[in-house]
Amino acid sequence: MEVFNQSESPMCLQISFNKLLEHYEELVTNSDAFISRKAQRVLKTAAPYPILREGFTDIKLLEKYKNEIQIILQDSFSAVLTKNEIKTASIPFEDVVFNSSERFKSIIKTAGENFDLKIQNMPEDDRYIIYCTIILNFYYGYSLDFKRPFYYEIPDEKGIIRYYKILYNADFVEIIPNENTPKITQEDYNELLDNFENIDLWKAKFPPNSYSFKGFVISNMFDVTNDQSISNIKSKLIGENKRKDETFMEGFHEIFRSLLGLKDIRVGFSIYNKEDQTFERVYGAGMSSFLLHDLDTSICSDALCNWTYNRLLNEKKFFSVSDVNLMFEKTEGKIPHINILHKQGIQSAIFAPIATDDEVMGILEIVSEKPKVLNSINANKLTDIMPFIVSAVERSKNEEENLIEAVIQQECTSIHSSVNWRFIKEARNFINAQLKGEEPNFNKIVFDNVYPLYGQIDIKGSSEARNWATQQDLILQLKNVEAILKSASEIEKLPIYDQFIFQIREYLTDLKEHFQVDSEQHIASFFSQDIEPVLEHLVSVKALKSKVENYYKTIDSTVKVVYKHRKQYDDTVSKINKSMASLLDKKQVKAQKMYPHYFERFKTDGVEHNMYIGESITKEDSFNPIYLYNLRLWQVQVMCEMENAYYQMRNKFPVQLDVASMILVFNQPLSISFRMDEKQFDVDGTYNARYEIVKKRVDKAYIKGTEERITQKGKITIVYSQKQDEVEYLRYIKFLQAKHYLDTDVEILELQDLQAVTGLKAIRVRVLYHKNKTDKAFYTYDDLMKEIKA
User: Fold this and answer.
1) Strand 211-215 relative to strand 11-15: parallel, antiparallel, unpaired?
2) How many CB atoms lie within 10 A of CB 213?
3) What backbone phi and psi angles, to 5 degrees, belong to 660?
């Protein structure tokens, strides 16, 4: 018998599917015949093999019952999502994986044969104690919060470390004490609470293998490399005595390598002395400047050309050099920063000013000995980290003046003014703890009993419009290439030209008849691998030179393809989002004056917004439900105004798209907390999580018994679940009808049940529009379209 390797533990770990099979036993009586039959199939598969319920430690049995286990776990590992989800069935903390998604397999395969999958941030003693706390919670019913983020660090195909956060689902676990196992008393529990680090005490109360763990966990993993890289940068910057730390810069290099996804890069700094107009070296272990090279200081105008000087020091914007050798040849070595980079063998570089609104404090330098790998595209990734670097430099220049703000910026993201007071309070506590010589801790920030409001103005048919634009660009590019190849075939009678023309016509037929998601990728590969080498040859043919050059004029320099219709679509979405977000922000200024509340918005294919209102946010004993009702009415009215504003400017956009508005009503107050790992507010609690589930799914919902989406252009949809919400919002609608915001046709609709959510209803009513701001007439969507076309 080959037993899997288990670290020392208070539990004897056995793989068992008993809890999951018990769940299927309950599903056998489900009223849904499909679910019932599926449950019967799973139970029938497991029935001949009682060991699958009893549990086992022999890993050879995993292979023996591989097919049965796959059937048992089929619902937990969706075939539809297997190439997207990073998911495993395993024994917790032991890295024993016996079922996994295709994407997880691909990630591990890429990591290489010698890669050992291991949780990186868990000391061995902690592992034992965490098992003990699991027993206390699961078996004895205590409520100990032992959860902490766990990560895998896995190299990708370039050898760059990527970070994967692990979330465990332990629904299918049983914990049973073995014979003669000492029972934990209240006195034992109280003693353990104050002795987390005393591993000998924990082992005395929970001897090794004194309990049986039967079951398995579902592990869901998420790639959090960018977030972790930013977090690591913040951690590095917060550290004391950075300049004396030999490992600081090497660690900084590794963080930037993960952030940019590039192996061979280095990071440097130089200080900007505004008074002397010089760049100066930063002295410290491992610190260097690629702008200064072997100099200690240099006059700025000697180190930069006029354009880069203005770009960095006046405009305070980054710039990149993607091919140093090419620029060196073009400028004959006369540009100072190109010359100094060329001397050091640097092939590509990014320079970013470390600047506030008032001043430039220094230059961040990222370089590589490979051309093209650093460029103006990936330079944009610095946007998320520059504020932290700026804050650190500011703090080092003026520690006392900026201390509170620095802690907020390093621990959190941008904070809304309504809740800023709470973060300042915690920042002060953080600083006071430091001053007292204590270990500072930024406490969890929670706002209880707040009422949520959610709304969105969504671009209808955005996927179809994007696909159409892609299709048209590909057709245009294919036809341009076809014309060149036809001319080439007349000059040189080569069969290969005819073959390429045949391939192009096949692509054109496929695009017109059944455009698919992967069509763009296939055709892009055709252009880069087959057509580009041909065009490089044909451009030397005198009769074809102008045609090939004209073809390249139609190619976007950034994306390297025809980007006409897609650019029109992208520009339209960008303008819609910018306009709608700007209008909403202006309206919010007035709303905050009525009564302070938390507000955030997001740009997707449209604009979404969240609001939370309640006593705990305002800090004052002033909240009254009238302010909630007022904000709800304000929201409906503003959504109508946003609809009007959009259709008044619609004709100015390159692509004529429609929008649809929706509001989600949630009747009960809930709690929100700031998630330090995700840097945003989220709802607390399982019941409250239902609100987030509905938010994510409801705009794609259908009217019950139909295939009609609940959201429609020209109408505003208000989704709710309680009768009192219906009564309340019908009052608002009646008021807004009187003000000619809304039409008289009001629909009360039932929504088709969503996954894990039932009983939703919706009010749907037409919005009344004006052709322009001075127009006094009122139009429905259909009438407005007729008027515009007339």
Assistant:
1) parallel
2) 25
3) -140, 140
**DSSP 3-state assignment of 210?**
coil
Spell out the SS3 assignment of 76-104. HCCCCCCCCCEEEEEECCCCEEEEECHHH
Please state, in angstroms and rounded to a whole number, the distance separating the CA atoms of residues 628 and 201: 53
The mean pLDDT of 347-360, rounded to a whole number, is 88
**pTM of the predicted structure, to 2 decimals:** 0.48
In Å, how far are 7, 33, 162, 219, 329 from 92, measured between CA atoms? Answer: 11, 34, 21, 8, 58
CB of 202 within 8 A of CB of 129?
yes
Q: How far is CA 309 from the centre of its chain?
A: 35
Quick count: other Cβ atoms within 10 Å of Cβ 761?
A: 19
Residue 471 has pLDDT above 60, yes or no: yes
Q: Which residue has the higher pLDDT, 117 or 25?
A: 25
The three-class DSSP label of residue 353 is strand
Phi, psi of 191 (to 5 degrees): -70, -40
Say which residues have a Cβ less than 8 Å from residue 473's Cβ, sequence separation at least 6.
561, 562, 563, 564, 565, 566
User: How many other C-beta atoms can be found within 10 angstroms of the C-beta atom of residue 437?
Assistant: 6
pLDDT at residue 402, rounded to an integer: 46
Instruction: Describe the strand order of the beta sheet including 11-15 as a list of residue ranges.
Output: 11-15, 211-215, 173-177
CB neighbourhood size of 152 (10 A): 22
Show Cβ contacts of residue 264 under 8 Å, excluding neighbours closer than 6 positions: 368, 369, 370, 373
| Per-residue model confidence as pLDDT tens digits over 280-322 | 887 665 678 888 888 888 898 888 888 998 998 999 888 889 8
- How far apart CA 96 and CA 68 sit, in angstroms, is 18
